[in-house]
Amino acid sequence: MKLDNFEFPDDLMYMRGHIWVKIVGDEAKLGITSLGSSLAKEIVHVDLPENDEEFESLEPMASFETIKSVTEISAPFDCKVMGVNEKLLDDPSLINTDPYGDGWIIKLRILRRDNNNLMDVKEAVKYYEKILDKEKERYKGIYE
Fold first, then answer.
1. How many separate domains does the chain show?
2. In 3D, which of 46, 25, 27 has the Cα closest to residue 94?
């Protein structure tokens, strides 16, 4: 699905913090949505968890830094880290340039799946539309 110029692939689940989650069986991969990466502007640093680290649902497990802020990435469910995108250590801008491809962040093994923190694409687009409208209103006049 599209929201303005931002893509939200139908086969992904989404969290409120601009996180996408691709679930296949008992494994998942996650990253930042195209809208989230655009709002973050230039990502300059990423802190990644260690392999085999375990996290409870909504526990902070990684973060990314822009020139203005640091944003935490929370676990979508109880999980164990199976891998991290080490390319991001040298080139965190991959999140900005290819958020659904080379800019993925963490691979997880699902220990206990709780979908309460996840939205399907339709719910996510409705939710993110409100955020985008607020951003447009905030910067009204600048881009017109």
1. 1
2. 46
